[in-house]
Design a protein that fits this description.
elongated
Length: 132
């Protein structure tokens, strides 16, 4: 929703050249939302869904931060300033989402490495339990 609001602000502003980044982010977020809602992540196991979401969050935070600085500092109209302020808010939201998604990504990657026959125990864990 925030990406769509920023997109609308950029359309109405003098900084209309920045409108493509929020539009693409909105469409990508919408796709991932519907993919998770319709359980496509469970049907297509070959795709690394947490990694895709992680990369989306990282790139969105960086891009929103950069275009928000440019919109606030370079343009003087109200819509550009509003888009910049919403962009800074989106940067914070995507940074928080980045943190949450990073934890999910680590869990996802640990699941892939725990497919060993002993249930994922390493030699270090086995030697620690023997010493007790």
């Amino acid at each position: 929703v925030l990406s769509f609001v920023i997109f609308i602000c950029y359309i109405a502003s003098l900084a209309a050249s920045f409108m493509m980044a929020p539009l693409l982010e909105f469409l990508l977020a919408l796709f991932l939302f519907f993919a998770y809602a319709s359980k496509l992540n469970e049907k297509f196991k070959g795709a690394h869904w947490p990694l895709a979401d992680f990369l989306r969050c990282v790139t969105a935070a960086i891009i929103y931060f950069a275009i928000s600085i440019a919109a606030v500092s370079k343009y003087n109209d109200g819509a550009s300033k509003a888009a910049g302020v919403f962009g800074f808010a989106a940067t914070i939201v995507f940074a928080v989402d980045f943190y949450i998604t990073f934890n999910d990504l680590v869990t996802f990657l640990k699941q892939g490495s725990s497919d060993s026959p002993e249930g994922g125990k390493t030699e270090d864990e086995d030697s620690d339990s023997d010493s007790d």
